[in-house]
User: What shape does this take?
Amino acid sequence: MIKFALRFASAALTVGAVPAIAQLPPAPQIPTAEKALSASSKRIFSTIRIPDRPAAVPIVIHVSPQGSDGGDGSRERPFHSLPRAKAAARTFNRDHDVTVRIADGTFRLDAPLRFTPEDGGHNGFTVRWEGEEGAHPVISGGLAVTGWRLADARRGIWSATIPAGADPRQLIVNGRLARRAAIEVPRRAFEFHDWGLAIVDPAWRFLADLPDQRRIEVEGTGWFTDRHAMVDKIEGSHVVMQQPGWRNNLIGYDTIARPVSLEAARLFFANSLAFLRGSGQWFADPARALLYYKPRPDEDMATIPIELPRLQSLLLIAGSYDHPVSDLQFRRLSFRGTSWLGPSGPEGYASQQSGSFLAGEVSDYPSNPIRDCSWGCRPFEAMRNRLRQQPAAVQVAAATRVVFDDDRFSELGQVALGIGNNPDANDAGIGLGATAIEVARSTFTDLAGGAIMVGGVIPDAHHPSRPEMAIRDILIRNNRISDTSRDYREQAAILITYATGTIIMNNDVSDTPYDGIDVGWGWGANDPGGSPAYRTASRGYYDQPGNLTYDTPTTLRDTVVVGNRISRVKQWYPDGGAIYHLSADPGALIAENYIRDVPGGIALYLDEGSRYITVRNNVVENVGVWLTVNSQDFLLPRRTALDNNAVGNWYNSGRVTGSWTKYLNNNLVGNVAVKGNNWPAAARDVIAKSGIRPDRPKP
Assistant: This one.
């Protein structure tokens, strides 16, 4: 029995069981003045004051791991499961603010928690899901693994039983993502072909003797990509790969066979028990229902907690363009324990950049892809507007006024939070359409992918076919982001593709393999007039069906990146920047950020098609290039990146590259080189105010 007290006209009403709530009689009606007064008295109607209806009393529904779904949702008899609490919240959210108060502990989901328009607030009311004060209860897609026994004393490998068929790509050991069994191999030991790899160094022919070869994975990292493909079989010196994933990894840019830089490129084989060599690594055998782990010297297998992710996502928040989810908040919650399984199939993960990938069969596939399509080609450009995006653990689309505040995202097997991404990246089947979304005071760490990915990459993302599809008014502030993109290294910590009025402020971003903050997509190809770089005969982008030359701007405009502290990013890739920008962004401002400790790397990078951007009063310390614009001088006199201003920045290292000329209207004004750490007072003030601001009030 739910016993919520509802007050009306000073009277208390005790509500009975939840199923009866819908059958309650309507609230008493105050007679209208016209009915109460005689016709002759109606002339004085305007002098009669009708009392205001009292405000609705907020509803609180309690959930606890020790509760029961047969309870009434009170503090004394809380529900046990989140789905039960969600069903109860629906009965009140049209007439009351509703808070689902979640007790400390772990809530293991059997399926993702889906929020539709019925689950948000209605009529000006708000639904809040929040942990108890001082707690961050865990919403988990994982399963605890126990019963470990020593399986191979010589190699120090232990095993435990897991559900048959379980084949995750991640494992959580002692609250951290562990490394899957893998070995790095020299690229010179193999030759690349459209069917797979030829082993040219006899030392690696032992691969043909390994069992369960269709579960072995090949991974290659390059200048800015992280590509994955699955083995089909290994016969003698031939590593035959599953298709179309392998073939798709051979075309595009910075491909697995011909990366931009051989010196920077690396190659790995993963996911075989034979590769389980290093401490802290693991391997799952779904057929035998066994999990293997090689503990570190300080780990006790009798006590160490180990979690096996079972779900590919945790929260799915999506309505429709006509009826979006609205007025929904999540506060003081922890999200853990997912594993996106997409790369484990024939498609692999043909990464292109920052969570976008090529999938499916490519028409007119080149007869010699390694020779003819390692830096773009017509068949690849025909697929550019059909790239897919990695689905996030928490997905938001067709939604408005959704808040994540003081939450913790960790131990997740992909991008943590996706806002308005492609439909293919949303399990609800609808994408884009996110407005007034706030992500504040939250922590993102220990992630297989990036932290936050906003926007899509399909045509409806940059030129929506209906206005409700646009991404608008996204606020990302006061978040601490570190140790992201551990398995999908090419993903930026924060990515904004196409959105209007995004504000990224006072975040602390550190310790990532790729960029800290990326803004923009499309490389200028979708901006008014298009890009001459994609009109060449070799690329032929605009010759492909559906690749339009637009006369109207994209939805990317008025982006603000201000007050962020970014350090120790770009630890794996030479390409990209601590703050990186693509394409036209009228009204964009990159200001008062503090970037440090990116030795040899780029701090502020305006890449292809960047226009109308002001880079002002940033402080840059210990980098290789403090500012660059990819002006594509080989296209001159054609112009691509222009009308940008870098004003009043301070830097103690690095150089400026790209063309800052009057012809391009790219202007350098009043930027100051500083010796050592002798920062002027204004620069010290920027440093002091950058990053997390603990004084910021709660939303």
Remarks:
- The helical segments are 18-21, 33-36, 82-90, 245-248, 369-372, 378-381, 459-462, 681-689.
- Residues 258 and 371 are 9 Å apart (CA to CA).
